[in-house]
Amino acid sequence: MTVFLIRRLMQSVVVLFVMSLIVFVGVYAIGNPIDILISPEADQMERERAIRALGLDLPLWEQYAVFLQRAVLGDLGRSFAFSTPALQLIVERMPATLELAIAAMGISIAIGIPLGMWAGFRPESVAGRAIMAGSILGFSLPTFWVGLMLIMVFAVHLGWLPSTGRGETVEVFGIRLSILTRDGIAHMILPAFNLALFKMALVIRLTRAGMRENLLMDYVKFARAKGLSTGRVIFVHVMKNIMIPVVTILGLELGSVIAFAVVTETIFAWPGMGKLIIDSINQLDRPVIVAYLLVTVSMFIIINLVVDILYSVLDPRVRLKEMKS
Amino acid sequence: MTGSATLVVENLQTHFHTRAGVLKAVDGVSFAVDKGRILGLVGESGSGKSVTGFSLLGLVDPPGRIAGGRILFKGEDLATASEERLRALRGDRIAMIFQDPMMTLNPVLRIDTQMIEALQAHRKMDHRTAFARARDALGQVGIPSPEERLRSYPHQFSGGMRQRVAIAIALLNEPDLIIADEPTTALDVTIQGQILFEAQKLCREVGTALIWITHDLSVVAGLADDICVMYAGRVVESGPVDEVLETPLHPYTRGLIGSVPSRNRRGRPLAQIPGMAPSPLNLPRGCSFRTRCPRADAACLEPPPMVELVPGRFARCVHPHLETVAA
Amino acid sequence: MTVTTPDRVAAEPVEATAAVVSPLRRFWIEFRENRVAVAGLAGCLLVVALALLAPLIAPQNPYDLTQLDIMDGRLEPGSKSMDGMTFWLGTDDQGRDMLSGILYGIRISLAVGVASGVLAMLFGASMGLLAAYFGGRVDTLIMRVVDLQLSFPAILLALILVAVLGQGIDKIIIALVAVQWAYYARTIRGTALVERRKEYIEAAQCLALGHRRVVFRHLLPNCLPPLIVVGTVQVAHAIALEATLSFLGIGLPITEPSLGLLIANGFEYMLSGKYWISFFPGVALLLTIVSINLVGDQLRDVLNPRLRK
Predict the structure, then answer these.
(1) What integer pLDDT is reported at residue B248 of this predicted model?
(2) CATH architecture of the domain formed by A89-324
(3) What is the C-alpha to C-alpha distance for residues C72 and C93, in angstroms, rounded to an integer?
(4) Domain residue ranges of chain A, discontinuous segments joined by +
(5) Residues 5-64 of A with CB under 8 A from C
(6) Tens of pLDDT along C129-152?
(7) Looking at domain C33-307, what is its CATH homologous superfamily?
(8) A227–chain C nearest CA distance, Å
């Protein structure tokens, strides 16, 4: 297990290194780094001082070494728009995005798995077909448009839920959370549901496919032949087998939910990382862009690592193989 | 055999309603088996022997369903029993062992979970008692250090060991009837021998009735007391196993025995049944073996009845091989 | 992203007719078995026709400012303009007829989607073929890049590229190609590896035909079916992704108003209940994407040799 962990960690470092190189080449080398890193409002003296301070007169590989060195120390430059360290900005916004992403994941699991199980258990029934048709629609609906429609129906027409912002938050260990207040939850329902929709369609399809596949397996028939109730067969035997691929894929999808939060946060004015990056792209606030990309990529790598470990914990067959190797 | 036997099956019909038509997988099968006795149910793949086994437990998957006949288990008709009643009997009074031991155990649950749930599904039992019972059952089927093995996952066992686990699960509740669906087909010959020996021993000692479904005549020869030969959804011949194998009455049984390589003399070409098993959707009129039978004539166009040709021996044929018995 | 096809009973083989009809006709016979897919195909054809004919059928040229009257701004669907023209789908803030705007929007969205789809296919398929044909280090290098890229969601990569490249129709197409080529490369490499082991490739190599001839004349045609399926789905993805980026204001410039931009324009009026400025372009987008996806699903079933008897 330790060997496996170390090997995976080393792979992760390599991926992060490659990504930092790409981001560096992209932002620092392709564009004009002086335009990118120095505020356009700066005067000539400031510019020259900054060029020397940032080492832009050095050869490219040396610049990269400096960039890397600073990045490792957590220094990814200062935001032009906010005049605060870019990394700090990102980290401040991160809880809001994570809270939204986790809520969306929770919704897509809580709704998607039961629906998918039913659609797999009774594929020919009217409900089963309706669920599948819904999931095809869920795949095709553009997230941002659904968000608008949600606002139109629930916020404008019915007036049930607020359309923008985070609402009232509570601070827990220095992290502001919406989920703990009624107002916060009301603000979170629409964006979280919006973000959840696409994943829900995915969960339904995965669960349904797993259900259908597993129901045909001999072990199900054998479990029934033991006299187990249908409930036990479905919720213990089949469920445990379905959950392994579903959890794995969902775990990997958490990263994509965080990335997709960009769209939802923009629509619902949710003050998270996603909204920050869009604002930064529009304002050409490049240090924040670089910081966002590196932070997101690191999160991705961590998520993939955690999912791999989780997968090996869940599936006894993998666990054994990995331990041997 | 009488109506008081553990299991009496009368004219069982199991049909599959497919888009292409009604598939009569089991079409009027009758047999009986009593406690401490072993019945061999023999036939080629597609003859309906496995579906017969699943029908007894009400485990036929849709679109299949029992269309007629009676399954009298200790006097109670299972063909019309409620799903709840069937569930209560399954694994408790009637147990089943499946063909492929690599597939029957749930790969992600530990052996103890899978055994204890089989006990607790039928009677209130605390975990410790159930664990002890499971351990004893594993020991009974010859698994070394059972206590340790209980905490393993199925993939940590070999095929033969897994089938022993499956047999142990079947034995847990001391059932009155065990249905074994080709349980040794996927195993090595030596392992097969051990398992056959133990199955026979357990059956005799505990007094369980056993139905052994197989396509392998040599297995039946060494194991069973009685034999039913199935062809295209029907029983074509039945009787005591030694007599049937020695002097088969039905041309199909005769052909089947002739096809066993060890029974042929070296140097002579292997005997074989010409043609292929007919599609169950498109059976020949009358006797379904007619098209492959060397003795077939116009009389075979009428469906032959099951007739007791020799005391205790039945065959569904108008031209049985009676000459061998008479001699 | 894995999109599983809805399970469907495999098409009944139509042996009797299939023996005499041409492959194209048999393809059509199998395709039309699924009525929903035929509806999808009809939807696709409709969308393409609307896009091509937009300048002819649109009630006005929405980008000819002389035809617009700010007094007609934000009219409800069905209202009439000052000079008696009916705005069936209402107007936007500048008095532009939404129907005309949508027809032109489809034109732009579809053009960008198809252009990036075709370019991504050309590039991705070439890389996939190279990887499969030469194997070894070339293969390892290309597939490492593909794997790395596919482990990140498309939207994140698109964000990176847009941030790096800046805006503009060419930049967006480059970004979409860069995001999507990996899907084609992976698909074609898989198929080509199977095909490569077959004897006809060996035969071609024995005839000492050049690499290029073997790859493009022999290998490629046999890898086409899966490529077509992936292509269909990816065009739908490209259209959705472009719409998303444009909606976020980091996609196409306002001089190229695709459906995504139209929807973004209506966003601010939505809160005051003027739904139509965002709603109808969204319906057009949805119709386009659903139609393409339905066709893609059915193509997958019909072209999949494993489901074929």
Answers:
(1) 85
(2) Orthogonal Bundle (1.10)
(3) 8
(4) 2-72, 89-324
(5) 15, 18, 22-23, 26-27, 30-31
(6) 888 878 788 888 888 888 877 777
(7) MetI-like (1.10.3720.10)
(8) 30
